[in-house]
Amino acid sequence: MPNTVPKSVTEELRAFCRSIASGTPVFVRCRPDADAVPSECFDNVARKVGRAGGSMLPGWAIWTISGAYHEAEHHGVWRRRSGELIDVSPQPNLPKRILFLPDPTAVYNPLAHRDNVLVAASDDPAAVEFVSLGNRRNAIHGAYRKGGNRLALLTLSDQKELGWIEQRLRELGPLVLHRRQVG
Q: What's the first-to-final CA gap in the chain, in angstroms?
């Protein structure tokens, strides 16, 4: 999939963000720390605060493919003492910035995972199916989380379903992108 960082904050994205939290989405510069681990933003920010001061701001990284889907991922960024926000965690495709929705109520709790929020941005059948499958994948993985830990073994039927979902998502990806580009 291509870079999914929004180029601008459209009214459609604002409405999506309002459905998640009352904050205002802002672009945050990406400067991953050398010791930062992908998908471990809260630990990455905690280490940064320990070394450089400042604080953690919880919220949501906002990803989108125009005309296809919007996604909010529970995320934390570093707030410098000056108030500037910086994403210290490595992101796919190495963007220069991300769109971040501050949400002080989205405090990180390792015992309570927050699933990504994924919604279709159009009624295009490929986009709707893509989002439905993404949400089903999240639900299957979520069923294997207990007390902050991920249980080791998926049932055979869940393994098969996840394999089919991943294959179908790979098939739908180009359709969703093509329809977006010609639509």
A: 18
Lookup result for tokens 């291509």: 2
- Report how far residue 50's alpha carbon sits from residue 29's, in angstroms, rounded to the nearest whole number: 20
- Pairing between strand 117-120 and 69-79? antiparallel
Q: Hey, what are 173's tokens? A: 């990806």
Average pLDDT over the chain reads 89
CA quadruple 8, 4, 18, 42: dihedral sign: negative
Q: Quick one: pLDDT at residue 143? A: 80
Distance of alpha carbon 46 from its chain centroid, rounded? Answer: 19
pLDDT at 179: 53
Picking from 53, 99, 94, 95, the residue whose alpha carbon sits closest to that of residue 75 is 99
What pTM, to 2 d.p., does this model score? 0.86
For the record, the structure tokens of 181 come out as 């580009």
- Compute the C-alpha angle 26/28/31, nearest 5°: 175
Is 182's pLDDT higher than 80?
Answer: no
Beta bridge partners of 85: 79
Measured distance CA(128)–CA(49) in Å, rounded: 40
Q: Tell me which H or E stretch contains 30.
A: strand 26-30
Count Cα neighbours of 19 within 13 Å in the Cβ-side half-sphere: 13
Residue 141 has pLDDT above 90, yes or no: no
